[in-house]
Amino acid sequence: RPGLPVFGILIERLPPTILVNFLSLFISIPLGLIAGTAAALKRNTWVDHVISFFVVIFISVPSFVFASALQYFLAFKLGWFPTLYDTNAATLAPIIALALGPIATIARYLRGELIENISSEYLLLARTKGLTKVQSIVRHAFRNSLIPISNTLIAMITGIMGGSLVIENIFAIPGQGGLTVKSIMAGDHFLTV
């Protein structure tokens, strides 16, 4: 529709999308690992129950609902963040909204895998050979628990990309999401494909 080459338009809009998606993934992986490990090590305590409660909330509620709530409460009411995307200011609200789902996914998978590995026979064997509980968990259980989580990374990346379509429109980020929605509304089939 604008009469410009499609590749040039896409390349121009790519940096904000990559920045928001990469930062949300960069934040979600360590926080998810920390939450999942804490929930597994403190199984059936208040820590596990609180983390499990937030995991259910973060998985159940879509990212655009969190984005709207963050925009209203943290940006509009409290004034901590700009309401819309600003290249000069730290715009953390869209990054946080995109990161909540992957944090919960990683925490849920890691908790289940770590609990299973902690109660396994090979960890008992490692403890009888003289390793402390922390050493056996870090050297054996944690590493073995990360293998199934690595399979979910591709699904998380595509989920963040899909969620970023809506998040970019909510925060007026000049990225691929807004371009895709505008091209769909305008019937610009060259940009939508």
3D structure, described in words:
Helices cover 79% and strands 0% of the residues. The chain is mostly helical and 193 residues long. The chain is elongated. The model has no long low-confidence stretch (mean pLDDT 83).
Give the H and E element order: HHHHHHHH
Helix content: over 70%
Number of helices: 8
Overall 3D shape: elongated
| Oligomeric assembly | single chain
**How many E-type strands?**
0
Give the distance, in angstroms, between the N- and C-terminal Cα atoms. 13 Å
Low-confidence stretches: none
* Percentage of residues in strands: under 5%
Instruction: Find the structural class using helix and strand composition.
Output: mainly alpha
Rg, rounded, reads 21 Å
State the major sheet: none
What average pLDDT do the residues reach? 83
